[in-house]
Amino acid sequence: MDAGKILQEIAGQVAVCEKCELHFSRKKAVPGEGPAQAEILFIGEGPGFYENEQGRPFVGQAGKFLDELLAKAGLKREDVFITNVVKCRPPGNRDPQPEELLACAGYLDRQIEAIAPRLIVTLGRFSMAKFIPNAKISEVHGQAVWVRGRLVVAMYHPAAALHQPSLKATLEADFVHLPEFVKMAKSKVGLEQAPVVQTETEDSDGAQGAADKEQPTQLSLF
Ligand code: SF4
Fold this sequence. Notes:
Blueprint: H1 3-15, H2 22-25, E1 40-44, H3 49-54, H4 61-72, E2 81-84, H5 98-115, E3 119-123, H6 125-131, H7 137-140, E4 144-147, E5 150-155, H8 158-163, H9 167-175, H10 178-187, E6 196-197, H11 210-213
Parallel strand pairs: 1-2, 1-3, 3-5
Antiparallel strand pairs: 4-5, 4-6
The chain binds iron/sulfur cluster.
Iron/sulfur cluster (SF4) binds near residues 17, 29 and 103.
């Protein structure tokens, strides 16, 4: 089956899924959207109010900001695939619970396999934890890490910048590097020799991130 058909099949299953309690309060499940051959896969946390109404990911204020961030990286929403770790809205936008994350994980795993993205960008700590468990987002954001043969970059969730404006500049600085990360993923730079690749972004308060605290192999891409 081709990737598009697999994604459609997943979307159909998500729409009627009752694997966790989130199905009780959902209006519309949000499987995610974008081209089946997308080079970049963005993974957020879960649908919010507007996403639950429309069945589409990142359509509220955070979605508008995501569009702006994509533009800064020279990308359009139609170029990328966007989804979440849970496909149904946690009531009141609460955090997804471990059992909900577990129940929903299979859909995301199948989406990743079907899309086979060059680069995975996690937005927020829940999607980051899927690939880089126990990491602190304040320390690893904007850095690319090879995880099971895929290049993964953890970033703050755009909604976090709406609540905490000081994160806006940090997110913008991290997004600017996306095209370079895609290039890196294509050439598999660092896959063999370096488990971690650092960027030189700064936290919005001006403090250098983990890039300067540790000295893993650094690639001269920037
Ligand atoms: S969040 Fe995921 S596992 Fe839970 S009901 Fe929705 S699709 Fe199913």
